[in-house]
Design goal:
With 430 residues, the protein is α+β, with helices and mostly antiparallel strands. The chain folds into 2 domains: 2-96, OB fold (Dihydrolipoamide Acetyltransferase, E2P); 117-417, 2-Layer Sandwich (BirA Bifunctional Protein, domain 2). Helices cover 30% and strands 28% of the residues. The chain contains 13 helices and 19 strands. The chain has helices at 54-62, 110-115, 117-120, 124-146, 185-195, 231-252, 254-259, 264-268, 279-288, 302-309, 364-373, 382-386, 402-410, and strands at 2-3, 15-27, 31-37, 42-48, 68-77, 85-96, 150-151, 157-158, 170-173, 176-180, 197-205, 218-227, 276-278, 316-319, 332-333, 336-340, 342-347, 352-360, 395-401. It has an 8-stranded mixed sheet. A 5-stranded mixed beta barrel has the order 2-3-4-6-5. A 3-stranded antiparallel sheet has the order 8-10-9, with no helix packed on it. It is elongated, with a radius of gyration of 26 Å. Its main location: cytoplasm. Residues 130-430 form the Aminoacyl-transfer RNA synthetases class-II family profile domain. This is Asparagine--tRNA ligase. One of its GO terms (cellular component) is cytoplasm.
Length: 430
């Protein structure tokens, strides 16, 4: 019976064959322990000298790291194994013998590992990170489909920018200027006027010359947009969605979280509703904490966000930021013109902002005024203004950064480990 490692639980006491790679091994005179992986998981294969033909035992002892093989054996339950099962090997068939695999079980520097990212992905921790990433994606589709959203795919090449062009990658689109998308939001607003509740999930790009552990040049965003949803409705969707994703990872990736030594007690607390603090109160709080450098009207940096998040045991919304530091499309607070109906969701444990969202301006004249104030071309944004001419309604949306969310849930120190092939300021290889 040919199967995969993740499926061996269905074949306890039976003989199965698995196509695998040798991740590591150790052997004594009469027994060899093979650490095997097949992409679905990791399992130990035990080869006992007096239970197999001599050539099988000799092959087991001579196998090199990352050689590929077919392994046949009896599935046994094993309480000592994190996975819960092991394989009593009866037969080995070598497919390809690997030589001088560069990533050995010793310590390697980060740059070396990043240069070998195409191989580093095979390691147990990176495998766990990618499985958690995949679960977040799966749960995302499940949540939004369950809530009646339709997935819409905005373009990656755009002729304009939702938040200005200073941090965009410029390219030529035949004889026109074009940019790699930094957000699908404006297009999602158009889609929301056609379908009510929509979401996108795709790559976005920021030409931001930052080297912090929270930044990537290319990253993935989940961007829902909702017609007839006002500010409070928007926050409710965000906290329900994040709670759903975290609980899904806890339920379906317990082994991966264990491999990463993640403290799950903190994740178990992530249940809606989430606490909120206004920008005004956040400034007061930071002053009380000794952050004398921050003043009203400044945007928050990582140390400020971390200090605020550390006073809560769940993600926290910071709401009502100053209008002057936010994009042109955000709806002003009806009670005061200097702040907008927006919120950033800050993850606990120092992982920073994972969501930015707002109610959008739905009044034609006000949006036109804001475009002019930001010195943006009315001609370029004429299609966006059209959305306010033909049946405009209050609407809201948000964007969640996938990699920052993976980093937080998985407990990764740096976002470079949360995407298969990271693009960083100094890295376009492999």
């Amino acid at each position: 019976m040919k199967t995969t490692i993740v499926e061996v639980k269905n074949y306890v006491g039976q003989e199965v064959t698995i196509g695998a790679w040798l991740a590591n091994k150790r052997s004594s005179g009469k027994i060899a322990f093979l650490q095997l992986r097949d992409g679905s998981g990791f399992i130990q294969g035990v080869v006992v000298k007096n239970e197999v033909p001599e050539e099988v035992f000799q092959l087991a002892k001579s196998l090199t790291q990352e050689s590929s093989l077919y392994v046949t054996g009896i599935v046994r339950e094993d309480e000592r194994s994190p996975f819960g099962y092991e394989l009593s090997v009866t037969k080995l068939e070598l497919i390809h013998e690997a030589h001088d695999y560069p990533i050995t079980p010793k310590e390697h520097g980060t740059e070396f590992l990043m240069d070998h990212r195409h191989l580093w992905l095979r390691s147990k921790r990176q495998h766990a990170n990618m499985k958690i990433r995949n679960e977040i994606i799966r749960a995302t589709y499940e949540f939004f489909n369950k809530e009646g959203f339709i997935k819409i795919d905005p373009p990656i090449l755009t002729g304009s920018a939702p938040e200005g062009t200073t941090e965009l990658f410029h390219t030529k689109y035949f004889d026109e200027d074009a940019y790699l998308s930094q957000s699908g939001q404006l297009y999602m607003e158009a889609a929301a006027m056609a379908f009510g509740k929509v979401f996108s999930f795709g790559p976005t790009f920021r030409a931001e010359k930052s080297k912090t552990r929270r930044h990537l040049i290319e990253f993935w965003m989940i961007e829902p947009e909702m017609a007839f949803y006002e500010f409070e409705d928007n926050l409710k969707v965000q906290e329900d969605y994040v709670s759903y994703v975290v609980q899904s990872v806890l339920k379906n990736c317990s082994l991966e979280l264990k491999i990463l030594n993640r403290d799950t007690t903190k994740l178990e607390k992530v249940q809606a509703p989430f606490p909120r603090i206004t920008y005004d109160d956040a400034i007061k709080f930071l002053h009380e904490q000794g952050f004398d450098d921050i003043k009203w009207g400044d945007d928050f940096g990582s140390p400020h966000e971390t200090a605020i998040a550390n006073s809560f045991d769940k993600p926290v919304f910071i709401t009502h930021y100053p209008k002057a530091i936010k994009p042109f499309y955000m709806q002003p607070d009806p009670t005061r013109d200097d702040v907008v109906l927006c919120a950033d969701l800050i993850a606990p444990e120092g992982y920073g902002e994972i969501i930015g969202g707002s109610e959008r301006i739905h009044d034609y004249d006000l949006l036109k005024q804001e475009l002019e104030r930001h010195q943006l071309s009315l001609e370029t944004y004429s299609w966006y203004l059209d959305l306010r001419k033909y049946g405009s309604v209050p609407h809201s949306g948000f964007g969640l950064g996938l990699e920052r969310t993976v980093a937080w849930i998985a407990g990764c120190e740096h976002v470079r480990e949360t995407i298969p092939f990271p693009r960083l300021l100094n890295r376009l290889y492999p």
